[in-house]
Amino acid sequence: MRSAYGVVALASLVSSRPAPESTLIKSQALALAYVDQETGFTFSESKAAATLSSNIIYRIATPANVPSGQPYDVVLQIVAPNSIGWAGLAWGGSMVRNPLTVSYPNGQKTTASSRWATGHSTPQSYTGATLTLLSKGNKSNSTHWQLTAKCTGCTSWIGTSGATRIDPKDQKRLGFACAAAKPSSPGSNTSTIPVHDVYNYFTHDFAAGANANFASLLTKNGVSGGGAETGNVTMV
């Protein structure tokens, strides 16, 4: 697996103004396999620098043996320090015209929001990707908060270059952004998101997170469907 060093790929999740140089933190991400004892999923894991001394952990679990060219669901897990008010992931590696997953703490719970931007302005709610929280893996303690959600529609979309699909057996550049400031309504998945403090990108190895029992693990964690994309999910 390769290390990836990124500088300035994700322009912003929330603002059209370019960020000052002080917001750019060199990111080093090495995707590794991580077995989550709580949910049972094997995730591919990358760490993204939120500050000079702390990281946001992005984990992605995929179904094994996805048919070639077919869309598929994933499980996304985000672990962030409590100093982070929100964290976002751009599945296409940039802000514009690709699914954006934004998450933020809400007391002892977490909120997940699916967004889409057509330009360098505040992203709007996106119905093309549906997020469903697992019954386990969503929590907050004295040091960190964690999101664990199934996403239908995060791995394929129609963007600027036409139809795009993330190959579950390959590496993919992803974008991320975060801020210390919290959303105005943390219990709402349509809340206004403050301007980011940090944005960057990393290369993620999707193959490291393959799960042969993906569908049964979803059932174990209170979520229906799995493998190929389905519409029988609850938006959060």
TrEMBL record:
InterPro entries: Cellobiose_DH-like_cyt
Domain of life per record: Eukaryota
SUPFAM superfamilies (alphabetical): CBD9-like (SSF49344)
Signal peptide extent: none
Positions of the Cellobiose dehydrogenase-like cytochrome domain: 34-215
Record PANTHER family: CELLOBIOSE DEHYDROGENASE CYTOCHROME DOMAIN-CONTAINING PROTEIN (PTHR47797:SF5), DEHYDROGENASE, PUTATIVE (AFU_ORTHOLOGUE AFUA_8G05805)-RELATED (PTHR47797)
Protein name (record): Cellobiose dehydrogenase-like cytochrome domain-containing protein
Organism: Phaeosphaeria nodorum (strain SN15 / ATCC MYA-4574 / FGSC 10173)
